[in-house]
Amino acid sequence: MADFTLTKDADGVGIITWDVPGKTMNVMSFDGLSELNDCIDQALADDEIKGIVITSGKEGSFAGGMDLNLLAVMKEQAGDDPAKGLFEGTMKMHALLRKIELAGMDPKTKKGGKPIAAALPGTAAGIGMELPLATHRIFAAENPKAKYGLPEIMVGIFPGAGGTTRMVRKVGAIAAAPLLLEGKMLDVKKAKGAGYIDEIAADPLAAAKEWVLNAKAADLVKPWDAKGYKMPGGAPYHPAGFMNFVGASAMVNGKTQGAFPAAKALLSAVYEGALVDFDTALKIEARWFTSVLMNPSSGAMIRSLFLNKEALEKGAVRPQGIPDQSVKKIGVLGAGMMGAGISLVSAQAGMEVVLIDRDQAAADKGKAYTEAYLDKGMKRGKVTAEKKEAMLARITATPDLEKLAGCDLIIEAVFEDPKVKAEMTQKVEAIIPEDCIFASNTSTLPITELAKASKRPDQFIGIHFFSPVEKMFLVEIIKGKETGDRAVAKALDYVRQIRKTPIVVNDARFFYCNRCIIPYINEGARMITEGVSPVLVDNAARQLGFPVGPVQLTDETSIDLGAKIARATKAAMGDAYPESPADDLIFWMEEQGRLGRKSKAGFFDYDENGKRIGYWKGLQDKYPLAEQQPDLIEVQERLMFAQVLEAVRALEEGVLEDIREGDVGAILAWGFAPWSGGPFSWLDIIGAPYAAERCDQLSEKYGDRFACPPLLREMAEKGQTFYGRFDPEAKAA
Questions:
Q1: How far is CA 450 from CA 131, 486, 494, 561, in A?
Q2: How far is CA 131 from CA 52, 57, 399, in A?
Q3: For the stretch 515-524, what's the b/e string if a residue is b when 16 or more beta carbons lie within 10 angstroms of its beta carbon?
Q4: How confident is the model over 514-525, as pLDDT tens digits?
Q5: Which one, out of 474, 527, 562, 616, has a CA that is 20 to 30 A from the CA of 128?
Q6: Helix (H) or strand (E) holding 212
Q7: Sheet holding 116-120, edge to edge
Q8: Taking the complete model, does pTM exceed 0.70, yes or no?
Q9: What is the pLDDT of the chain when averaged over all its residues?
Q10: What's the pLDDT band for 733 if we cut at 50, 70, 90?
Q11: Vertex 683 angle, CA 679 and 684, to 5°
């Protein structure tokens, strides 16, 4: 069966239907491009066809983007010159979409062409949006679930099939910049306002057919193909346009700190393309697109943020042979911020929720969190009164544990005290069904130890959320020593229901994510004790692509929490605990009453509204700034290696079972340099031999925490990569 088919209706309209067999949403493949080209040629050559409508055979959607295997085919066809293959393949896409745009018209007079419209029943993303942008009129359905946009920047590339050039030519650089650089998907009304679509129709196919039958020659000529065309907002050589491009450059560098290759390449394609004619601009776009695809960062981001993330969400690590474990009724123990957030996302997913706290007032406060969230949604027009009422009705807030009867999943989010958790576990297990899975949301306490309070340790598991629950994309699932497969399947199915990305790790102190985050924070603190400017520390991290530096992150998560974790870890490890100057700093800050943002005093000073107004100068009274500040790269490598070496050790020790989870988890949990693809992808980019050599240099200068793990040393000696040695797909095969 073909991806694209051409039919002709009684009115003489050629209908090209995109319907990829076996897929719930259309994606563009190499064969699909060829089939679309053939359909366009046939329709343009058929004198009985007066106009063409391109639509989808999928209910509620047009297309989800490109099959990434298409890029691999382009590379393979060029043999020893993959860049040539990518460039020529991209130019073939440009030629096809340009053929649609010109529609057989005379190159000089711009007459004689056939009108071509797009009828979109729903979501159109990536090349699924670039194709309609090449048509003469875009009609979209009144579909509230549909989203439209060009999200390529989110996976390390940019719209390279003409979307960049067309959007800039259509709405101007300033209006196009946020659409291209933020990659946001818009609902149908906002998409129309942004310029992605032209008309909203109850029946987009009928509206498109009517338009092509009545279109005039002038309706077919795109503004950039008409005489006297001027770019909205001005081209770079125009006084107004010049300032726009200066502003766009500042905006890009301000947001990305120069860490994301795709953003810089996109801006270059836009700027250089705006200086020349449209067809030359497409060629420039293709060159920059090829440049990005050849950058190892692009491949790493695509692999982690698209392929690996999607695989984990579809159950790549789910135990086999376990039937569906979807949650119907969930009990949430503790109505504080975490419990309230878990309650919110569970009710949002359609589950019946029992939210428990010590008294009715505390439980009601937790439920009020959901109500406040829904009220904000109503103000933005995203939530109806009916939806709010239905969602709140799913949540029963109560201090009565008996209400937990009938639950098939319990998530405990009470105070981080093993005794408190043990007592709650035993009380609840006396009420819930025998087959109910019990999960703890602890962020630091070993699951195996907590499970000792349970009569059913095989049904005890960790489900670690990140705060705020409704905004964070990752959930870390922790297997205790006795945790069974059904508990793992239950946790994974629950995470799928609430539409988040799961990783599954084995039990160990701090699990995986916190195990890597804490060294990042501690290395920043150590540097301060050495006299390194906190400004340098945080900016070094931001220029690596981290959303916040370790000093700011400490303030955000609270300094007394860091002190509490340090004391608890020291008590648990005893003499094995590694003494650290970072602890001395944190304990001193705690003594000063500077607990971070929540107390409006920490490493930063804050105004009355809790807004940061600068780093606290009193810090230098205790830790004076060194006259000679370290090199930026040295600071960055200390911050990076502090984290990635913990990730390697987690893999060595079996805490991590799948490197995909290590990379995806790092990016989604704490924003680990997304351009790198994650810790293991970063090590593959820099190479194991260099990483091992740098470990030796750093450990000699700064201590054993930078000692090269045996696994990394072995891989360096053998010239191996992590995705070469631990490729999950190769293992599966």
A1: 54, 18, 21, 20
A2: 14, 16, 56
A3: bbbbbbbbbb
A4: 999 999 999 999
A5: 474
A6: helix 204-214
A7: 4-8, 13-18, 51-56, 116-120, 137-141, 199-201
A8: yes
A9: 92
A10: very low
A11: 115
